[in-house]
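Narrative summary of target 7.
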Amino acid sequence: MRRIFILSLITSLLYSCATTKIKKIRKETAQMLTESLFDNQFLGVFIYDPLNNDTILKYNSEKYFTPASTTKIATLYTVLKTLPKKIPALKYYTTADTIYIEGTGDPSFLHPYFKDSTALSFLKKYKNIKLYLNNFDSNAYGPGWAWEDYDAYFQPERSPFPIYGNVVSVYKNDSLTVTPSFFKKEVKVLMAPKAREHYENTFYYNPDKNDTLETPFIVDSTLVRTLLEKALNKKINLVNTFPKVEKQTVYSIPTDSVLKRMMAVSDNFLAEQLLILVSTTLSDTLSVTKAQQYILKNNLADLKQPPRWVDGSGLSRYNLFTPEAMVHILKKIYDEEPRERLFNLFPIVETLRAPTDSYGATNAPFIYAKSGSLGNVYCLSGYLLTKSGKTILFSFMNNHYKQPTAEIKKQMQLIFENLRDKY
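Modeled conformation, tokenized:
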């Protein structure tokens, strides 16, 4: 009895110490959030311990915020739950002498980074190719995208059969190199307010530039056919209908390679096209909305605060997520995916402090997270590894601030370091 009593007493004391420690961490974190830096802005925070099912801190965590590119976490989860290990490159049907093909939204086809030619090699075997492009039920631009960014590298058009990443790449060495070369005659070397005309595929390259310029081109059916013809060096016919048959699928590169790139460089084009790819596994119609509705109904029906989710990338300010909803999705990924895969897909955040800070990071990386930035918006959601070996899930959403983003990041880093060292 005495031994049981002593063990019970020790357990009680340990629990009491642990409770006191957590209370202290909560108090310290809350104090850091009361800094005047955060006064004139909208701030939402949710920090959660999945092992103990314990909320460490919540502040405005049930309110809706503009998530910016942290929206890609929802896109990531959708892909993880729906797409196979390899990207569906295209769907097809063959007759004796003809192949009918339709796009799946695969962004990797002849993409400047992936340079995948799986579908190209497959199509070279066929003499008669009929291309169907009427399976797309989304707009080229997402709801609320900035119209003035039509020529910006980060806002290529969405389409059913992307090619070359839907951008023209131009760089100057001894001479001007243009990819795809089809556009070379449309590139003018001169100073201009924009990199492309608004309503036509005429491009401008600053003669003083030394780096690669990537500019979205306007996508239409005739252009896609022409670019594909040039790549294959054979004639292609556009068709308005696809035979009502069971289609087969060609697969290309590993899905994780596209996801990793999307998360690492916050690639908006990849995010949008990945949701289109998801829809090709659900029906014959390619639709961003269809993919979003599916995952919200089937895998995220338990969200306490359902989001307003309008695109895959977070470019739109119409998107609205709560910090709690974001952590809820992070927990699902944490529970359902192997740790190695999870931390391979999420970018490592070395430090949020400026590299010139004398007290910069000197420890091993401990944050795996996705950031999101728009004007007056900075968000960060992901996983924090503590020195005690625990994994903490968190979502910070900063909206409507006017001070430098660097100051916001610096204060967040202090909070993260305190959690790392003491939790």
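The chain has two domains: 30-67+321-422, 77-289.
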